[in-house]
Each structure stands twice: as C-alpha cells, then as structure tokens.
Write a structure and sequence with these properties.
The structure is a single chain. This protein is mostly beta strands. 13% of the residues lie in helices and 46% in strands. The chain contains 3 helices and 11 strands. The strands form 2 sheets. Strands 2-1-5-10-11-4-3 form a 7-stranded antiparallel beta sheet.
Length: 151
C-alpha cells in the first residue's frame, strides 16, 4: 500500500562550497504555513545528503509531466560543468546558491531547520526562504512515470 501514496517528482539541488549536485526526489511535502516549512526525505547513502548536512540548504525544482527524462537523468548525481549540469541549464538560487533547473515549473529554496534521522532516509525540515514560478504546467507524479519508489 505504500506505493499507492501519491508523490510528485522533483529535482533537489544542493551546494557545499564550490561543489553542486542534483538528485531526483519524490518524498516532499508541506509541513507548516507559518513559517512555511517542507519536509524532504533524503537517502542517507546519497552524497548530497552530506552536502545538505554541511551547508544547511537545499533547493527543489518542480517538474512537469513532459520532464520524465530529465528526472531520470538526476537519479544519479551530476556534477557542475561550467554553468550547467551536463547539458541541463540551471542557475544558482538567490537565497541559497543551490542549483535550480531553469526549465522547471518553479522552485523553492530552503534553509534546514531540523532533521529526523531514522531508517535509510533522513527527514530534513526546511524553511522556505525563496521561491518562484517559471511557467505554468502540470506537475509530474511518480505514478505518471511507471517507476516504483517506496516500500
């Protein structure tokens, strides 16, 4: 039944010093209105997990239904090459410096204000300190991809 829970598909961008990474996430949800908080569950074996712990920041780019291939590329961390992740255009978020996908529906930038470390994923509580809309579109969901991520 855990696979029946609906999840969006997002790209989480992280920065630690000069190094940037991006990875696909699906366990993200809003947790509070005041202050605006989200929870982001990150696999603790992911290199980006350590980058979030070290920097205290992350950004989330929201993808549309036509960006399944983009989401698939970010299942493996990609490193910055010039001003891109490979050939994916991104820019540094104003509030965090974390990479944001330029062709995404929009983004949020978060400062980590808490962490719950249990199991193979850690739950980061992030206060939204920046956000923006790039364009309109329909958010891609995990069920749209045919992939299964969950127990």
């Amino acid at each position: 039944m855990l696979r029946k829970i609906p999840h969006g598909i997002y790209i989480c961008g992280v920065k630690d010093g000069e190094e940037v990474n991006g990875f696909t996430i699906s366990w993200l949800m809003q947790a509070s209105f005041k202050p605006p908080l989200v929870v982001n569950c990150v696999n603790t074996s992911n290199k980006s997990y350590e980058m979030i712990k070290n920097s205290g920041f992350f950004a989330v780019s929201f993808l549309d239904k036509g960006q399944k291939d983009l989401a698939q590329r970010f299942f493996q961390p990609l490193k910055r090459v010039g001003n891109r992740f490979e050939d994916v255009e991104f820019y540094a978020g104003e509030a965090t410096g974390c990479p944001i996908i330029a062709d995404s529906l929009g983004y949020i930038e978060c400062k980590v204000v808490g962490e719950i470390a249990e199991g193979d994923h850690s739950v980061f509580v992030g206060e939204v300190i920046g956000s923006g809309v790039h364009r309109e579109g329909e958010q891609i969901l995990l069920e749209d991809t045919g992939w299964q991520y969950g127990g």
